[in-house]
Design goal:
Strand order of the largest sheet: 1-2-3-4-5-6-7-8
Number of helices: 9
CATH topology: TIM Barrel
Number of strands: 10
Bound molecules: 4-methyl-5-hydroxyethylthiazole phosphate, magnesium ion
Strand content: 5-15%
Radius of gyration: 17 Å
Length: 279
């Protein structure tokens, strides 16, 4: 490492750019479809995609996941699989995201190996505390929420609000992505808590113009964290707030983020301009 590239976490994983994180919902994507939604959203600046379809059986999820892998090829945007850690390899995804009631984190990490990403949902301070007892490189990030009520997950925990998000983000040695009821208007309040990004379903899936919806989230996040809006014009295309969009991106890692930086303070990754390369 020469000090200029992205910092790495355990297993040599480059830190994730969690800033605008799309979770797919096959029903909400409707006739437009999940792959087209992902393509439009990523072209507009989404930085992580999570494949989530609790109703699909394993075989159908693998087919859909492979379609997303093909859609994301060359973009540098990672695909994570919700819950079903055992399908990550068959799909060719980059990792998984598990909830409190899903696979044990260490079992999931053992199945995934050291190079895949792994995120964990938390709702309470004791969830964060339990996670911090794990080896730091077992996880890459925490998902915190629902922050606001959500219609997208019928069995979601009660909404816990911005103060809880602030508290858990501060307590977490990993970057935290906020989830649940997040709209464009709520992005600045989320960014002010020290969270590393916003994870959404309904703010993108099923929107009349998926690309415009994702672009609005991208612009809201970049505006809120002040990540070099002035230099965006120099990147060409539909550059928004320092993130080049409208084309593929590679090298989605953010400098100085993740567990390695815990000593620098709980918010070492917040607002750090993302290192991205336009294809
Ligand atoms: N986990 C906690 S809330 C939620 C999940 C999967 C759903 C978020 O969906 P939306 O539509 O962005 O509120
Ligand atoms: Mg789950």
């Amino acid at each position: 490492m020469d000090g200029t590239g992205p910092r790495t976490t355990g297993g040599g994983r480059a830190p994730l750019d969690l800033s605008v994180y799309l979770i797919t919902d096959t029903g909400q994507c409707g006739a437009f479809g999940v792959p087209a939604t992902v393509a439009a959203a990523v072209a507009a600046g989404v930085t992580v995609v999570q494949l989530r379809d609790p109703d699909a059986d394993d075989a159908d999820l693998v087919v859909l996941g492979r379609a997303l892998v093909a859609e994301l090829a060359g973009t540098g945007v990672p695909l994570l699989v919700n819950d079903r850690v055992h399908l990550v390899q068959a799909i060719g995804a980059d990792g998984a995201h598990v909830g409190q009631g899903d696979a044990d984190v260490l079992d999931a990490r053992a199945l995934l190996g050291p190079h895949a990403y792994l995120g964990l949902s938390v709702q309470t301070a004791s969830h964060v505390q339990a996670a911090t007892a794990l080896p730091a490189d077992a996880l890459d990030y925490l998902g915190v929420g629902p922050v606001w009520p959500t219609g997208s997950k019928p069995d979601a925990a009660p909404a816990s609000g911005l103060e809880r998000l602030r508290e858990l983000s501060a307590a977490s040695p990993w970057p935290c992505v906020a989830i649940g009821g997040i709209t464009v208007d709520r992005v600045p309040a989320v960014a002010a808590t020290g969270a590393a990004g916003v994870a959404v379903i309904s703010a993108i899936c099923g929107q009349p113009d998926v690309g415009a919806a994702a672009l609005a989230l991208r612009a809201a996040w970049d505006g809120a964290v002040g990540s070099g809006a002035a230099e965006a014009g120099a990147l060409g295309g539909h550059a928004v707030g320092g993130h080049a969009v409208g084309g593929g991106v590679v090298g989605a890692g953010a400098a100085g983020s993740g567990p390695d930086d815990a000593a620098a303070g709980p918010h070492a990754w917040a607002g750090v301009p993302t290192q991205r390369f336009v294809l």
